[in-house]
C-alpha cells in the first residue's frame, strides 16, 4: 500500500497543494491503491510535499513520484501519445509548474488578504508567543521565492498579464477536446488540474482568478476533472455558492 503525504482538504479544494493534487490524481489514473496522511514539508526527504512511502521506499517530488510509478508499476501516463505529443505535454507541464504555479503563489501568499484568509492558518497550532513571527517569516520566504521566480519583479497587473498568456496557451491547446492532449487524460492533465483548480477555487478572490474565469473551456475542464477524480467533492456547488 502506498502512503501519500499531503496537506489535505482546504481553500475550497480537496487538496491544498497543486503538486500533491497532481500526484494524487496520477495515483488514481494508474489505479493504484493508496492511503493519504497529512504532513508538513519538514517531514519530507526534500522538505516539500508531496512525498510517498511505497513499501518502505520514500520518494519525494511529484515528478520523481511519477517516474517511480512508471518504473515500478509499468504504467505509462502518456500511453497513446506520439513522441512529438509527449514532448509537447512535457513542455506544457514545465510551463505550468515554472510559470502558472508562481502566479498562483502570488495570489495566495503575497496578497495580504488572501494570505490572512488561507496560508496564515497553517500556523494556528503554533505556540501563541511566536505564532505571528512564524507567519511573517513564512510569508517573507515565499515572497522572496516569488521574486526569484521572475513574476514577483513586475507590478501586480503585469504579473497577472504574463500569467494569462500561459493560461491562453493552455486554453488554445485544450480547444474543444476533453483533455489537453486528446480525449483521454494523460500525465500533464494531473498537473494542469492541480494548478488551475488552485487558481479557480471560489475560496480566494484575486485578479488572477477573474482573468482565468474568462476562459470557459478551462473552467469546464476543471469541473470535468474534479467530477472524474474527486466525485465526492462538491466543487460545482461551491462555485455556484460563490
Notes on the structure:
This protein is α+β, with helices and mostly antiparallel strands and 242 residues long. 57% of the residues lie in helices and 7% in strands. It has ten helices and four strands; from the N terminus they run E-H-E-E-E-H-H-H-H-H-H-H-H-H. The protein has a four-stranded mixed β-sheet with strand order 2-1-3-4, with helices on one face. Helix 3 (83-110) packs parallel to helix 7 (187-200). The chain starts with a strand and ends with a helix. The relative contact order is 0.14.
Features:
242 residues; alpha+beta; 57% helix
**Biggest sheet: strands side by side, in what order?**
2-1-3-4
> What is the overall silhouette?
globular
Mean pLDDT rating: 93
Classify the secondary structure makeup into a structural class.
alpha+beta
User: Topology as H/E string?
Assistant: EHEEEHHHHHHHHH
**Unreliable segments (pLDDT under 50, ≥5 consecutive)?**
none
Q: Please report the total strand number as a whole number.
A: 4
Most strands sheet: 4 strands, mixed
From the N-terminal CA to the C-terminal CA, the straight-line distance is 38 Å
Beta content comes to 5-15%
Helical region count?
10
- Nearest-angstrom radius of gyration? 18 Å
What share of the residues lie within helices?
55-70%
InterPro entries: FAX/IsoI-like, Glutathione-S-Trfase_C_sf, Glutathione_S-Trfase, Metaxin_GST, Mito_Protein_Transport_Metaxin, Thioredoxin-like_fold, Thioredoxin-like_sf
Domain Metaxin glutathione S-transferase: 165-225
Protein name: Glutathione S-transferase
Domain Thioredoxin-like fold: 18-114
Amino acid at each position: 500500500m502506498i502512503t501519500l503525504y499531503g496537506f489535505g482538504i482546504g481553500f475550497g479544494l480537496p487538496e491544498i497543494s497543486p503538486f500533491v493534487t497532481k500526484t494524487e490524481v496520477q495515483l488514481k489514473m494508474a489505479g493504484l491503491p493508496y492511503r493519504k496522511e497529512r504532513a508538513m514539508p519538514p517531514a519530507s526527504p526534500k522538505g516539500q510535499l508531496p512525498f510517498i512511502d511505497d513499501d518502505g521506499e520514500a520518494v519525494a517530488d511529484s515528478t520523481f513520484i511519477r517516474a517511480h510509478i512508471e518504473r515500478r508499476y509499468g504504467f505509462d501516463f502518456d500511453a497513446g501519445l506520439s513522441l512529438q505529443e509527449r514532448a509537447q505535454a512535457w513542455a506544457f507541464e514545465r510551463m505550468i509548474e515554472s510559470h502558472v504555479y508562481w502566479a498562483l503563489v502570488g495570489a495566495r501568499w503575497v496578497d495580504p488578504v488572501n494570505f490572512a484568509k488561507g496560508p496564515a492558518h497553517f500556523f494556528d497550532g503554533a505556540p501563541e508567543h511566536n505564532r505571528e513571527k512564524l507567519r511573517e517569516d513564512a510569508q517573507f520566504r515565499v515572497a522572496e521565492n516569488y521574486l526569484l521566480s521572475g513574476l514577483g519583479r513586475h507590478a501586480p497587473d503585469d504579473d497577472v498579464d504574463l500569467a494569462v498568456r500561459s493560461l491562453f496557451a493552455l486554453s488554445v491547446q485544450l480547444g474543444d477536446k476533453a483533455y489537453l492532449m486528446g480525449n483521454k487524460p494523460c500525465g500533464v492533465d494531473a498537473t494542469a488540474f492541480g494548478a488551475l483548480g488552485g487558481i479557480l477555487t471560489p475560496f480566494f478572490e484575486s485578479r488572477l482568478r477573474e482573468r482565468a474565469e474568462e476562459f470557459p473551456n478551462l473552467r469546464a475542464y476543471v469541473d470535468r476533472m474534479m467530477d472524474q477524480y474527486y466525485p465526492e467533492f462538491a466543487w460545482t456547488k461551491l462555485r455556484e455558492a460563490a
